[in-house]
């Protein structure tokens, strides 16, 4: 019996290898971009398939590996090839943005994009992504940084009586109608952003967004637009949020008031600002989010208030909260640096909280 053999293994292997490439360094990313560009230069526009290979095979572009520390040998080579660490970082930034500007127009089926946090992505690169052929297919974008910038030219909004400047992040997200998961990082308490009162924004309309991560976004135009009662996020079920409750100008609690009733999973994190802020999460969390199944308090320095789980104003207690299935509370620290804060810990507070939960 004749053995069955694969006569053309290369296209099959190419499709598998390029669907989710592993790119641990900027050098690998540049080599990958060169390969995609070379394939596009050989592509005949008269062919039945409108997009070139291997670019049309790419579905996942994960650049989070660029944040991992280099090995000793790689670090020495990188340092030796430049005049120092700062020059190396700047050089990598230029190369990264150059590669991404080349790649985005050539990746028509890109669905997942994870940007590095250690190397800044230029606004011109995000504009290239905004106009890329994959914008209607993009489902996951992680690693965005909120710049609190506005478009320089006034734009007329349907919902505003007068012209106003459009927030750059709002403009960016409006280009991705099928986005399911987005992660955005801000600059915390040091960057209050523009006032939504003086810069009215159109309400966000992200019909398919299911998961949102906002770290260090306390206020500004973007979160202000999210807090608009007309903001349409009907599919939102998961929110990972840095909480700035009780702080001047905070809009994170307003965000829970507007969208909390839709959430099934909520993660509240401690601010990473310096000096450290000891901010307890809002005691009305369960009231604002009555359908939670997963609740996580990831703050090792401040316990959630006991009123969170036994408040006379609530129509239920923690035990009667039928939808809650998973509760995480970080290990509580009583380090001296945090004992003299605005909410000092009291003796037996953790035990009291546990008793409230199991009552």
How would you characterize the overall build of this protein?
There is one protein chain. The chain is α/β, with parallel strands linked by helices and 359 residues long. Helix content is 28%, strand content 11%. It has eleven helices and nine strands. Strands 1-2-3-4-5-6-7-8-9 form a nine-stranded parallel β-sheet, with no helix packed on it. The chain starts with 8 loop residues before the first helix and ends with a helix. The relative contact order is 0.07. Mean pLDDT is 79; it is low at 1-5, 70-86, 153-163, 312-319 and 337-342.
The SS-based structural class is alpha/beta
How many H/I helical runs? 11
Order of helices and strands: HHEHHEHEHEEHEHEHEEHH
Strand order of the largest sheet: 1-2-3-4-5-6-7-8-9
Share of residues in helices: 25-40%
Return Rg in Å. Answer: 24 Å
Low-pLDDT residue intervals, each spanning 5 or more residues: 1-5, 70-86, 153-163, 312-319, 337-342
Given the C-alpha coordinates, what overall shape results?
A: elongated
Note the gap between the termini.
72 Å
**Using DSSP, what is the number of strands?**
9
Indicate the mean pLDDT: 79
Strand content: 5-15%
Oligomeric grouping of the chains: single chain
Largest sheet entry: 9 strands, parallel
């Amino acid at each position: 019996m004749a053995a069955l053999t694969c006569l053309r293994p290369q296209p099959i292997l190419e499709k598998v290898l390029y669907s989710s490439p592993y790119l641990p360094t900027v050098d690998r990313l540049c080599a990958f971009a060169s390969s995609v560009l070379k394939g596009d230069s050989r592509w005949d526009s008269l062919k039945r398939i409108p997009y070139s290979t291997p670019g049309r095979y790419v579905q996942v572009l994960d650049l989070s590996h660029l944040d991992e520390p280099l090995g000793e040998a790689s670090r020495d080579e990188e340092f030796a090839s430049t005049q120092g660490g700062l020059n190396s970082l700047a050089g990598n930034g230029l190369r990264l943005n150059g590669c991404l500007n080349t790649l985005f127009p050539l990746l028509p089926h890109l669905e997942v994009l994870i940007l590095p946090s250690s190397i800044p992505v230029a606004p011109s690169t995000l504009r290239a992504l905004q106009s890329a052929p994959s914008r209607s297919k993009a489902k996951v974008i992680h690693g965005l940084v909120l710049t609190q910038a506005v478009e320089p030219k006034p734009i007329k909004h349907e919902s505003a009586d007068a012209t106003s400047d459009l927030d750059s992040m709002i403009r960016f997200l409006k280009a991705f109608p099928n986005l399911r998961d987005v992660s955005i990082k801000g600059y915390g308490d040091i960057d209050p952003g523009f006032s939504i009162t003086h810069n009215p924004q159109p309400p966000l309309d992200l019909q398919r967004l299911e998961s949102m991560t906002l770290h260090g976004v306390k206020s500004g135009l973007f979160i202000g637009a999210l807090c608009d009662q007309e903001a349409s996020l009907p599919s939102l079920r998961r929110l990972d949020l840095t909480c700035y409750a009780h702080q001047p100008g905070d809009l994170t609690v307003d965000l829970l008031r507007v969208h909390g009733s839709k959430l099934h999973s909520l993660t509240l994190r401690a601010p990473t600002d310096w000096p450290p802020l000891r901010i307890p999460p809002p005691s009305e969390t369960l009231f604002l989010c009555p359908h939670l199944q997963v609740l996580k308090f990831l703050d090792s320095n401040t316990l959630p208030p006991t009123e969170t789980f036994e408040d006379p104003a609530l129509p239920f207690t923690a035990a009667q909260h039928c939808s809650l299935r998973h509760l995480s509370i970080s290990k509580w620290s009583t380090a001296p640096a945090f004992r003299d804060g605005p909410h000092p810990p009291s003796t037996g507070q953790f035990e009291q909280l546990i008793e409230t939960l199991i009552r």
